[in-house]
Here is the input.
Amino acid sequence: MLKIERKLIDFLDKHICLLCMLLVTALGLWLRRLAVWWSYDNVAAYFDMHAHSPQGATYSLLVFLLQYLPKLPLHSVKWLAGLSDIGVAILMASMLGKNAAPTKKLIFYVVSLFSPVLFLRGITLGQLDSMAILFLLVGYALYEKYWNVCRLPMRGIIVFFTAFSIALYPCLLFVVFFFLLQQKKSQQAFWCELLALLAGIGLLQSISVLVLKLPWTEGIYSLFHYLTYHPETGELYQNAGEWLLYMGIQWGVAASMLSLLAAGRHKISYAWAIGIQITASVLCGEFLFKA
Amino acid sequence: MKNKKNLAFAAVIVTLSLAGAIIRYLGLPYEGVDYRDCLRPWFDALKANGSLHGLAEYKGDYNMFYVTMLYFLTKIPVSSLFSIKMLSILFDYLIATLIFFMIQEVAPEGKKRLYGCIGYGIALVNPAAVIDSAYLAQCESIWAFFSLFSFWLFWKHHPAWGSFVFGLALAMKPQGIFILPIILIYYFKEKSFSIFHLLWSAAGIQLTCVPAILGGCGFDIFIRRFLYMMGRYPHVYYYYPNIWIYLKNAPYYVYGKVAIFSTFTALLLFMVLFLKSKKKAAFQEMLEYAAWTAMTCGMLLPCMHERYNYLGEVLFAVSSIINKRYRFPALLLLLVSAQCYGQSYLSWPWISHYVLAAINIIIYIYLTLCCTVRLYKGGLSEKGLENA
Here is the structure.
């Protein structure tokens, strides 16, 4: 082995985690750049605001505003999702706890960035689930650190992040509700936190329906459309199988990313996290690439 | 006493060899679809031409090394069906012999010959190998042999020869590259040879192209054929029940690259984990990691035929001889592979590829967890790293 080669290898060996992270980030971005040009046949149905559309009013407002960027509107949405994927991956790696080794952080970063569900729902279908997860994780990180020690302004910021994530991705409402429920706090604290959150969501949705000139009831109903209406046709689901498929697709990102984090924190087993990730990926793949 | 032992050993080897030969003999008259539609027409065209110029006029999609082998087979006064199959069968025996020596390296003292014979026997009666060579006249045993031999030579501290033989594997079929990840991991871990040794693989590749170049092909014939074979497929799934069956209609022009670079990332991540573990790997462990890297290629790369995980299957079977916990998964993997061959070429009853893929994925996840958990026995915490 040449002297310079040995020095180079020693350098690589020393900084391999960082170099791997940079390389993987570059690859993740490049692959997203490729995928941004492929679109699902009926992708327009997710943005045309038809009756009983699966998107919440805040989501529609955000998409509406993205039209003013100097890019194809669909690409702007997709890139917002793609860049959020990186944010999610960084947060997943940094929220594993103080004792986590750099290699563990690297694994979680890579697995999150290359998560098939995140890739398929975000850059392929143009859904902002990962952006919502990003806001939820920021809110959660701040909640863990500051909620019990800080005053109103910081609590307001935490409520905003969480409410915004729910307004973008309504599935998270149930996640946050159960999270608050299982916190060992007084009933008064639970109701205060829940009401603050609902007020935050209500405020965001109200501003959105006002700007978009939608009926005010849409602010509430649009958060629950996905539960009963087919996202593309806007009609009621025809059968239980169809409902299960679309619920799996809608919940895919939330279930897979949050279960991954829970496994990383030893709250659930890795087998569950892998199983959920694979199931959600299969459902998304079957849906997007049906013959 | 020693003579008796030697005699018994020779008897076992002869019996196993004969058993392997008999199983293969039963399949010799069978004309598979690949033979009828591809190999025979190519063979006949090369024979009709009669000179090396036939190589320049070759229109098929195999590498020149194999086509050159076919050309030389035309000079033997035996029917194409038998000569092509006998070539692959010869390499079946070479793989079995190589496995015999590999197993001896890792087997416990006093049981080396016994374990070696078991490895030899498993390699010969492996149903996927039998169907591939003796029934379908396919050539997976050839590139798999060169790949395994290359790995063995690197392990035995012959990096130049190892690299040269790796070139032969690559020249045989692009799937020969499945052994490269473990060679690179070994390189970064051991730091015992120079990366420039890998240049010998170019010599190996180019040497195999000499007859084709003499026959009128360009000097870049290998690269041109390699590029020709890339990107020929419309979709990422191609008959091997791997992860891509669940996204089987994903367009290749986008998701082909996603699949390739996801595979690269998985291998890179494993390399980082291996290097950071500071663990000194024995040959048995290296065999398991080689099985994992080869299987990662089979499970994550796009457009995999049912026979492209051949190397992973062989390595996993070899690892299972010493490591008991792999025995059932390795057997299952071989049976899934045999079932794929059977239902694609031999009219076996159809089992959904979704089911077969699910079994393969579970086996792959199991192997992944076993390989990574072994690296970090104390868990992925700072303390665990210290204990690893």
Remarks:
- Confidence is low (pLDDT under 50) at residues 380-388 of chain B.
- DSSP finds 19 helices and no strands in chain B.
- Chain B touches chain A at residues 188, 191-196, 246-251, 254-255, 257-258, 261-262, 264-265, 268-269, 272-273, 275-276, 361, 365, 369, 376, 380-385 (CB under 8 Å).
- The first helix of chain B runs from residue 2 to 27.
